[in-house]
Amino acid sequence: GQSYEIRMLDNRKLGELPEINGKLVKSIFRVVFHDRRLQYTEHQQLEGWRWNRPGDRILDIDIPMSVGIIDPRANPTQLNTVEFLWDPAKRTSVFIQVHCISTEFTPRKHGGEKGVPFRVQIDTFRENESGEYTEHLHSASCQIKVFKPKGADRKQKTDREKMEKRTPHEKEKYQPSYETTILTEVS
Predict the structure, then answer these.
(1) Where is the composition biased (Polar residues) (predicted)?
(2) Which CATH number does the domain housing residue 54 bear?
């Protein structure tokens, strides 16, 4: 339920895709499972979640905090998806809220579990001649894990302690921690 900012940036090279200059694009955000084995049962997993949490959504946009988003929509049948239009030439920040925690999809439900990793995926489209946003421009994603605040603090503390015990050579295998995450381009 906490709001996290995702800054939407126009990362075209100079002169690339001039046809979207001055036009809006549509971005679709989805929270999906990161693990391949859970991706195969994603539909059943999400249906089970819906059944246990009637009326709730997995992903929402915090509209009052967001900047530069136009026509934000959340399809009632797709609990893990939100979409909006935006102008690549203007400052755009969308604040998203994930309303499920990583341990809701683990077999044991009594705390202390690792929790399953999710992925936030953003697909961006431009308008076609018919005015529909179907022409794919770009996709990017990053892995996330969602915990309740106390659980998240505990997890960060144990992760830090584990890291401190590793040798400098072992530490090189891990990427350093940053204030912000650059989403990875998906081909």
Answers:
(1) 177-187
(2) 2.60.40
- Residue type for position 178: Y
Which residue type, as a one-letter code, is found at position 72? P
* pLDDT digit string, tens, across residues 98-148: 999 888 887 766 556 677 889 999 999 999 999 999 999 999 999 888 877
The domain containing residue 31 runs over which residues? 3-185
Rounded distance between C-alpha atoms, residue 10 and residue 22, angstroms = 12
For residue 135, the cross-strand partners are 126
Report strand pairing: 81-86 vs 69-73. Answer: antiparallel
Give CA–CA dist 154/8, Å, rounded: 31
Asked if 117 and 102 touch (Cβ cutoff 8 Å), the reply is yes
Domain count, the chain: 1
- Residue 124 CA to residue 134 CA, distance in Å, equals 9
- Rounded to whole angstroms, the Cα distance separating 36 from 32 reads 10
CB within 8 A of 77, min separation 6: which ones? none
